């Protein structure tokens, strides 16, 4: 039986061979893949690859030690050719490549009787909306799925199991909120957050819980429309938001663990100083591990009124719905988060994207955010989705971070502050 795939129909993709993924993406190897790469005969094809070791061992935050495809000193995959072509593909065919390379920019997440299809907006073609509809990829996905599928156990809250069918039901309620064109995107997100606070108590499998969710699905948009938001970030929320923003936009160098100790210490010190600037909003921010030409003050002066522009709202809607359908927001490292914990952490990506779009506009000397800035911001923010567990922070910071993200109105307050809706 062919699987039923769930994906955002508005997303498009055709590989443009830009080579970005081969220069910036960590490819984790599966069982036996290192040995298969070592067995490739490069003699007479690319002699410089004859003795190349294809993998290094790494440990990512929140994940077990694994093998990663080796990169060159310039950050590119060791197999990337001068014309941005994969030399494995060129000489041995697509099937010889590591599975994750064949899957990119897609990921598969089985849940219940369906498979969520994740699409990385870090991919240039995806973030720019270029290429063919995803529906045309389904035969290819079916061929790859047996090797890529990895069923998970789902939870509503810690210790409260949640069948896959119920996850889909709850998430389709969230998608219904995001599709409600009578509300602004800001208020649609408020509906999602309010629903997750109120409709996820008790046993979700009971008939009464289902009736409550249905009633809230109808009533919450009416309530939100009548009550404008006045939330703004307090000191603690602001510290958590900008700390998380810095970590999201500036992942450590891919090979930091392989550097000499003194260089690791120097890079760590440099990153700590840059992170402190975010907390104080002083000097020039880092974005994508480089210091911008603009200061924090100049970023704040950029017109961020993009939530009132239909073309930008459409881009953000597509992103949010794509990630919900994909289930990717549920995964951090090797673990799946409970739904009530994952949802607010995921929606924090929206104010982070808006701030990053302002920063990109300020960096090019513009006074107003454009659609291209938003698409560029999504590439940066989505790159680290699912790779930043709060457990990677020092214990007290991790506890404070989790509390603020899960127990306060951080997303709503950050949206108000960044978009200046107050």
Largest sheet: 3 strands, mixed
Number of helices: 18
Q: What percentage of the residues does DSSP assign to strands (E)? A: 5-15%
Helix percentage range? 40-55%
Describe, in plain words, how this protein is organized in 3D:
This protein has 422 residues and is mainly alpha-helical. It folds into two domains: 4-148, no CATH class; 152-422, no CATH class. It has helices at 20-24, 33-38, 87-92, 99-103, 124-127, 138-148, 164-178, 185-198, 207-226, 235-249, 261-280, 296-301, 310-326, 339-347, 349-363, 371-383, 395-407, 410-419, and strands at residues 4-6, 12-13, 55-59, 65-69, 106-111, 114-119, 132-133, 155-157, 160-161, 286-287, 290-291, 331-332, 335-336. Strands 1-6-5 form a three-stranded mixed β-sheet, sandwiched between helices. Strand 5 and strand 6 form a beta hairpin. The chain starts with a strand and ends with a helix.
């Amino acid at each position: 039986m062919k699987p039923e795939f769930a994906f955002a129909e508005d997303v498009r993709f055709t590989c443009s061979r830009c080579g970005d993924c081969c220069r910036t993406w960590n490819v984790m190897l599966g069982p036996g893949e290192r040995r298969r790469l070592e067995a490739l005969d490069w003699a007479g094809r690319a002699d410089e690859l004859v003795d190349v070791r294809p993998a290094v061992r790494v440990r990512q935050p929140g994940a077990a030690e694994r093998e990663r495809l080796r990169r060159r000193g310039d950050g590119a995959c060791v197999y990337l050719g001068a014309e941005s072509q994969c030399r494995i593909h060129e000489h041995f065919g697509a099937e010889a490549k590591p599975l994750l390379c064949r899957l990119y920019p897609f990921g598969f997440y089985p849940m219940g009787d369906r498979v969520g299809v994740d699409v990385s907006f870090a991919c240039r073609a995806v973030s720019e909306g270029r290429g063919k509809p995803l529906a045309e990829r389904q035969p290819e996905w079916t061929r790859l799925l047996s090797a890529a599928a990895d069923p998970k156990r789902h939870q509503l809250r810690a210790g409260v199991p949640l069948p896959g069918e119920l996850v889909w039901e709850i998430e389709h309620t969230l998608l219904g909120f995001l599709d409600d064109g009578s509300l602004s995107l800001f208020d649609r997100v408020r509906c999602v957050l309010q629903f997750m606070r109120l409709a996820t108590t008790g046993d979700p499998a009971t008939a009464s819980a289902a009736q409550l969710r249905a009633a809230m699905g109808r009533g919450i948009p009416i309530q939100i429309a009548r009550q404008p938001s006045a939330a703004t970030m307090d000191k603690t929320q602001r510290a958590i938001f900008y700390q998380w923003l810095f970590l999201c936009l500036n992942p450590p160098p891919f090979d930091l663990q392989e550097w000499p100790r003194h260089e690791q210490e120097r890079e760590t010190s440099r990153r700590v100083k840059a992170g402190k600037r975010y907390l104080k909003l002083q000097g020039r921010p880092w974005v994508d591990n480089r210091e911008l030409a603009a200061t924090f003050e100049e970023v704040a002066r950029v017109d961020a009124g993009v939530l009132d522009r239909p073309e930008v709202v459409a881009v953000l809607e597509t992103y949010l719905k794509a990630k919900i359908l994909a289930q990717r927001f549920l995964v951090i490292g090797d673990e799946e988060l409970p739904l009530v914990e994952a949802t607010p952490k995921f929606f924090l990506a929206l104010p982070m994207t808006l701030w990053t779009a302002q920063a990109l506009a300020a960096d090019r000397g513009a006074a107003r955010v454009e659609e291209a800035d938003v698409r560029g911001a999504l590439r940066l923010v989505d790159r680290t989705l699912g790779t930043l567990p709060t457990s990677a922070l020092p214990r007290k910071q991790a506890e404070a971070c989790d509390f603020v993200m899960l127990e306060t109105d951080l997303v709503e307050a950050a949206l108000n502050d960044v978009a200046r809706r107050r």
